[in-house]
Design a protein that fits this description.
8 helices; seven-stranded parallel β-sheet
């Protein structure tokens, strides 16, 4: 996948990884539609700002109508409501699923027909493959669903030769991880790995060691991993 000269769209581009994706794509020679729910929150020189709420079908349809040819779709927008699965309400679990699964799927459905020969990158999570605390369980379930979604659309878009890549990470220095006091990757480091992976045609990019350790644990007895989860993550 050649980024220079391409046209890309990034969801959740107003901050964090989305902003870093937009800036890096511009630096590599792409034309970029930077999208967010609030248009005024996008301040990235050189990008085309576009309003897009991925949980709103009308907003998706409107954005799709304003974008012509497209080569790269970066499904970055997401939520984490810190919802346990067995808490007093399922409302926040539904919010995470509405954004991370349904929002990603609906944006992909809107733009997939024009991505023949192009690429889709979905930002998943190490929590697609494990759970860390009750407060992450709703988010983890939604990201597990997004991982499965990513694998499914890869098969469904194979005939039109669309590269579908999953970016999996645990710990980047974004607003979502602001309250966690552990070493974090800078967003631009994560994005550089992701875009290098796209250009190399990779279907999965593992951005950090904790995520690599989690992925490797899937072939082992989960009792061993969960018995010493912190040690297994950072070993």
């Amino acid at each position: 996948m050649q980024i220079n000269g391409s046209t890309a769209l990034v969801t959740g581009a107003n901050r964090g990884l989305g902003k870093a994706f937009t800036e890096a794509l511009l630096a590599r020679g792409a034309t970029v539609f930077a999208t967010a729910r609030r248009l005024e929150s996008i301040d990235i020189p050189g990008a085309v700002a576009l309003q897009l709420d991925i949980t709103d079908p009308a907003s998706i349809e409107a954005a799709a109508g304003k974008v012509g040819d497209l080569d790269i779709l970066i499904n970055n927008a997401g939520t984490s409501t810190e919802a346990p699965l067995l808490g007093p309400s399922t409302e926040n679990i539904r919010r995470d699923l509405d954004t991370n699964f349904w929002g990603t799927l609906n944006v992909t459905r809107a733009f997939a027909p024009r991505l023949a020969g192009g690429a889709i990158l979905n930002v998943i999570s190490a929590l697609s493959w494990y759970t860390f605390s009750p407060g992450s369980n709703g988010y983890a379930a939604s990201k597990a669903a997004e991982w499965s979604l990513t694998n499914g659309i890869r098969l469904e878009l194979a005939d039109q030769k669309t590269l579908v890549t999953a970016l999996a990470l645990a710990i980047a220095d974004t607003d979502m991880m602001a309250g966690v006091d552990i070493p974090k990757l800078a967003p631009h480091e994560v994005v550089a790995q992701a875009l290098d992976g796209l250009e190399a045609g990779k279907i999965e990019v593992i951005a950090d060691k904790p995520t690599a350790n989690v992925k490797a644990s899937l072939s082992r007895d989960p009792a061993d991993f969960y018995a010493d989860i912190t040690g297994n993550l950072f070993a």
